[in-house]
Amino acid sequence: MTGVHWRHARAGDGPLLEAFACAKPNVRQGQRRVPPEPWATEVQSYLRAKALGETAARRAEHDQRLILVFDDDSLVAVVAHQDAGYEEAPTRILIAGAVALARRGGTLSDGRSAFHAALVCLLEDVQQASISGPVLALGWVHPGNRRCLRAMARLGWAAVPTDDGLLEVRGRLL
Ligand SMILES: CC(C)(COP(=O)(O)OP(=O)(O)OC[C@H]1O[C@@H](n2cnc3c(N)ncnc32)[C@H](O)[C@@H]1OP(=O)(O)O)[C@@H](O)C(=O)NCCC(=O)NCCS
Fold it and tell me: Rounded to an integer, what distance in angstroms lies between the CA atom of residue 60 and that of residue 11?
């Protein structure tokens, strides 16, 4: 048993990411099948189909990184982040982050929640990138995504509405 650990995604991780599930199955509304959390479906599609290629393409220019968090052999969380390019205040943009559906709200083998474990792995990654001084985090969350907003509010991160209907979330990462 190795407990919770992480590594950067690599070229052969396509099948692992294609099997990653963070979205609840569709529910039936009359004739239609509607996802109960559309944002989770969007994040899942990105992580399954795009994250690996986009991270490789944006590695050099934007320092994009894709973190895979494991609990023993299970992939329990995935986080993609990149440099915002602000010289005055080093800032990491949170491109996408998700906890595996089966582990959401749950506890991992070392007693931490999956969300907390993903955050610690993100911090370790930022520290390894040798970014010195305070580091800020910046992301955009759908206002209906109460779970994500609650988790970020617990970190003391502020959420401000934007013109495109999302909430911009900002806070201190490091
Ligand atoms: C956002 C996400 C990473 C948070 O992970 P998580 O494991 O749910 O996080 P937590 O266990 O810390 O829970 C966060 C909050 O939701 C609540 N919660 C967790 N699981 C729950 C459940 N099954 N039912 C009701 N509430 C739940 C927790 O109680 C907590 O609320 P609190 O702060 O009031 O106690 C995860 O829900 C996820 O992957 N969602 C799908 C993808 C997504 O939305 N990504 C973010 C895009 S911006």
Answer: 16
